[in-house]
Write a structure and sequence with these properties.
By secondary structure, the chain is an alpha+beta fold. The protein has ten helices and six strands; from the N terminus they run αββαβαβαβααααααβ. It is elongated, with a radius of gyration of 36 Å.
């Protein structure tokens, strides 16, 4: 009875077995096809057994498990690499020299304003820039060896502590003052965008979202690129283990974390030399806690918030560009002089 048996295809016909369960008893052929299940009957010598093997389902589960294991291995490898990289960068940050020397200095950057502009500022009167445009005298920035040397000239205002640089001008320092609690977040956003977009994307992002002059903007771009080279693993580790780099859990000023400390000690010196002024040197308190000794006290905070001064400066830049066809990223250096008076 059992062997009425094998069909021409080599498979057993369920109709030839009586009293034996068939594969179709567990579901129709269509149901198994919809589930991508393959039915297979196995013969072991004289003993005939029938088994439904869900081979395709098992293969799918095995592939999913393999993919999951692969992803976990990649994540673990990246975690180990970031951890090692962060430890190396942290060790170098710890041994990097302090930046206190940039704030423990008697040098100051002074501004020599032309008489018409100075008179308008002192008398709080309006200055008609259009009337003096043809004989516009330049605003000149000079580095003096002390506050006394700078103020000996009646036309000199202290712009900030330290030597003059590409950001030593009313426009850029005004941005420092207006964004004292948001500048870091803006630069951090642009830095993240630059990971895929590169330096060109970073430069454009900073120009659009912050608005520094070209020369000052370039100092910030180079600083962020320095952070990518020397502090990237540290900053990723900070995000992974301790939360966002720019998080403020105290509700007030933030302490430096591992990421911002790396930027301060490893990339800060080159930035200060390029820009000349940061917020501390301009006497502006930012979202970060700083030592009182590092915040400039020689500057008259807010000197840059004068409409005539800003208009005069912008007119001067436009005038020089038209006359000399100078690259905008270089226009500041042409008006920065160093005084060697003692």
């Amino acid at each position: 009875m059992m062997l009425n048996a094998v069909s021409a295809s080599g498979h057993f016909s369920s109709a030839n077995f009586t009293g034996k369960p068939s594969c179709s008893e567990h579901g129709s052929e269509k149901d198994f096809d919809d589930l991508a299940i393959e039915k297979e009957c196995v013969i072991d010598n004289s003993n005939v057994s029938r088994t439904c093997l869900f081979s395709k389902g098992k293969d799918g589960r095995r592939k999913s498990l393999s993919a999951m294991i692969f992803v976990l291995q990649v994540f673990l490898l990246l975690f180990i690499c970031v951890s090692i990289g962060a430890r190396v960068q942290l060790a170098r940050t710890v041994h990097a020299p302090s930046t206190a020397r940039f704030y423990d200095t008697t040098n100051v950057c002074g501004i020599e304003m032309p008489p018409p502009l100075l008179s308008a500022i002192e008398t709080n009167s309006s200055l008609e820039i259009n009337q003096i445009a043809e004989k516009l005298e330049p605003i000149v920035f000079k580095t003096f060896e002390s506050t006394e040397n700078a103020t000996a000239d009646n036309f000199t205002t202290i712009a900030h502590c330290g030597e003059c640089g590409a950001c030593s001008n009313p426009h850029d320092i005004q941005i420092y003052g207006e964004t004292n609690d948001s500048l870091f977040k803006s630069t951090l956003t642009c830095a993240k965008h630059s990971i895929l977009g590169g330096k060109k994307s970073l430069r454009k992002c900073m120009k659009e979202h912050v608005g520094f002059t070209d020369g000052c903007n370039e100092c910030w771009v180079e600083n962020i690129m320095c952070d990518r080279r020397l502090c990237l693993f540290t900053c990723i580790w900070q995000e992974m283990m301790f939360g966002p780099v720019n998080s403020d859990k105290s509700g007030g000023q933030q302490s430096l974390n591992r990421c911002t400390e790396c930027d301060e000690k490893r990339c800060g010196p080159a930035f200060v030399k390029c820009a000349g002024v940061n917020r501390r040197r301009a006497g502006i308190r930012s979202e970060f806690e700083r030592k009182d000794s590092e915040v400039c006290r020689s500057v008259d905070v807010g000197w840059w918030n004068n409409g005539d001064l800003q208009e005069y400066w912008n007119s001067q830049v436009d005038d020089q560009m038209q006359r000399n066809h100078v690259d905008p990223s270089r226009h500041l250096s042409l008006r920065t002089e160093k005084s060697h008076s003692s």
